[in-house]
Design a protein that fits this description.
The protein is an alpha+beta fold. It has four helices and eleven strands, in the order βββαααβββββαβββ. Strand 6 and strand 7 form a beta hairpin. The relative contact order is 0.15.
């Protein structure tokens, strides 16, 4: 029986969707997807200047899991910078603290305070009545793209999958999926 998926806690959603390179002559058409828990690990370590143990406690994960999330984020950001690739913050396995919304019109991100009702509110930036709960969007997110927990001792077969084309190959024990590039798309695979 599979283990229940445990969500990582996140204090607030990112205020942006990602970054695009500008200037220079070389631009890759590929993009790097930074998961929301990876963004949170970078925010906690590099912006809030917390230790890995403090960050792990805030995200409700073990310190080794936090380290793997943080390392994955740093590698993705490094790849995007060096190879002039766009990166996007999307998906992941997180649960937001608070009542966060995104405006359908201006894409502003805002939080409703305790006691405020979404039915009585407007976007604080453009006054649009049309906005969507980020918490609900995350609940609809079906599967985490990466699993940072190790699966030692598991006797069920697992697979490495390409996020772009869907190619699925058997996972080879001891070889992280992210170290294997899809032969078609040339991007790292993730663990199913």
């Amino acid at each position: 029986m599979p283990r229940p998926v445990r969500h990582r806690r996140m204090q607030r959603p990112p205020l942006i969707k990602g970054f695009k390179p500008y200037g220079g002559q070389l631009r890759s058409k590929e993009k790097v997807v930074l998961l929301m828990e990876e963004y949170e690990a970078i925010r906690l370590m590099d912006f809030e200047m917390l230790t890995q143990l403090e960050g792990a406690k805030l995200m409700d994960v073990s310190r080794p899991t936090f380290t793997r999330i943080y390392d994955s984020a740093r590698k993705k950001i490094g790849k995007a910078l060096v190879l002039s690739m766009q990166f996007e913050i999307d998906g992941g396995n997180v649960q937001l603290e608070g009542n966060w919304f995104v405006c359908d019109k201006c894409k502003a991100v805002f939080e409703l305070k305790e006691g405020e009702k979404a039915d009585d509110m407007f976007c604080p930036h453009c006054q649009s009545p049309n906005f969507e709960s980020i918490n609900d969007q995350l609940k609809d997110y079906k599967r985490p793209k990466y699993n940072y927990h190790r699966h030692e001792g598991s006797d069920t077969e697992t697979f490495c999958v390409c996020d772009k084309c869907g190619l699925t190959i058997s996972h080879k024990r001891g070889v992280p999926c992210r170290k294997i590039d899809c032969p078609k798309c040339k991007i790292p695979l993730y663990r199913e």
